[in-house]
Amino acid sequence: MRDDLLELLWEGLRQTLYMLVWSSVFAIVLGLFLGITLVVTEKGGVLEARVVNRIVSLAINSVRSLPFIILIVLLLPFARWVVGTSLGPTAAIVSLSIGAAPFLGRIVESALKEVAVGKIEAAKSFGASPFAIIFRVLLPEALPALVRSLTIAVIAIAELTAVAGAIGAGGLGSLAIRFGYQRFREDIMFATVIVIILLVQAIQWTGDSIAKSIDRRRHRTE
C-alpha cells in the first residue's frame, strides 16, 4: 500500500459525501414536491388539475429520458450561474439534484398511490382540507414506503456522483478514473470500489432500519 492511498481515499470520500448529502437534500425536497403534485392533481385527486398533471409528468419524463452525463453538460451554464463555477463538487450538486429529482418524483408517486383510497375518502367525509389530507393522511400512511423509496434514490445519487467525477466533479469517481485508471494504480481502483460498496451498504442499512422502526411503532399503536 502506497503512502498516499489513505490520503487520496479520504479526500475522495469527503467530496463524495459532500455531494451526496446536499444533492440528496435538494433532490428529496424537489422529488417530494413533484411526486405529491402528480398524485393530488391526477383525475380524482384531492386537488385535481389535469393540465398541471400533464405538464409536470411531461417535464419529469423529459429530464429522465436524458443520459445523466449529457444532462450534466447541459446544466453546466446553469450551475455556473447558481454557484459561480462549473467544476468541482459544489457545481455537481446542481446537476445531481436536478437529475435525481424526477426519478425521486416517480417513486414518491408510486409510494403515495399505495395508500388505501378508503382512508382518503374517510378524511374527505370528515371535511378535511386537501392540504390536511396530504400532510395528515397521504404522507404519514406512506411513510415506510417513502423511506424505502428515498433510500433507493440516495443510493442512485451515490452512483451518479461517480459519473459526475468523470467530468471534473471530484469525489471517488474522479479518484478512480484519474489515479486508478489513467495512472494504472490498481490499489486505488480496488480501494475505491470497496469504499463505494461500503457506502452503499451503509445507506441501505440505515434506510431499512428507519423503515422497520416506523413499522414497529405503527403496529404498537394499532
From TrEMBL:
Positions of transmembrane segments: 20-41, 62-83, 89-108, 120-139, 151-176, 188-207
Keyword Transport recorded: yes
Domain of life per record: Bacteria
The keyword Magnesium belongs to this UniProt entry's keyword annotation: no
Alphabetized Pfam families for the sequence: BPD_transp_1
Record keywords, A-Z: Cell membrane, Membrane, Transmembrane, Transmembrane helix, Transport
Listed name of the protein: ABC transporter permease
Organism taxonomic ancestry: Bacteria, Bacillati, Bacillota, Bacilli, Bacillales
